[in-house]
Amino acid sequence: MREPVGLEFAGVGKAFAAGGRSRDVLRGIGLSVAPGEVIALLGPSGCGKSTMLRLAGGLDTATSGTVSVGGRPVTGIEPRCAVVFQEPRLLPWRTLQRNVAYGLPRGVSGERARAEVAHWLTVVGLDGFAGHRPRQLSGGMAQRAALARALARRPGVLLLDEPFAALDALTRLRMQDLLVQVHGETGATVLLVTHDVDEALHLADRVVLLGPGDTDASTVRLVLHVPGARPRDRGDPVLAELRVSLLAELGVGSRHVHGRNPA
Asked: Rounded CA gap, 48 and 241, in Å?
């Protein structure tokens, strides 16, 4: 892997044009992420969580402020970042092996490329499926393949945009545990967008809550440090207390916290 690198948002704003008018989505975002840290972004739909990921990866450009990776401003597609989206986005005509190879950095070929692909397929538990095509995979397997493709890039920063949202509950828990294992091996800096409070508390070093500030544009409303080393016990009463607090910040009353997570 590349060395993990820091990530910084300094006074970042983002506006989108709609109907001849400009609408601010983010305003005054300030957030420093240390190398190797795992940050979870929480907040209501439309608050700009995925926009922050796109700005970090150079897939979009800030209207104001600066986004930096490893101390260098992001001015285009950032080669030290890799993205995993909510959908696997595998190429259906390619085998799993060739899909993962698509994520390799330029210049990696031949035996080295084959070894890299084999390594990451093993890491995500798909070493026996290299010759399969995406249509032959379950949803969880396809998302593991997408993660392997991102890791093959050996990123310093891993950007995860609700990567487990489309999976069933049990597969989602397994993928969360896989991410903990992968982070332990790679040490990459991780920025995770999620709507799931439990997922954020299980995976993150800090949870960053986005929401409207003085205007309709979102800003950082709360930064919560999550105690305890990973892997964490999902039944930990400390995490349960933090869950109640975060749900309250999201406007969910205590009568809902024992049911399905609505955030």
From this structure: 26
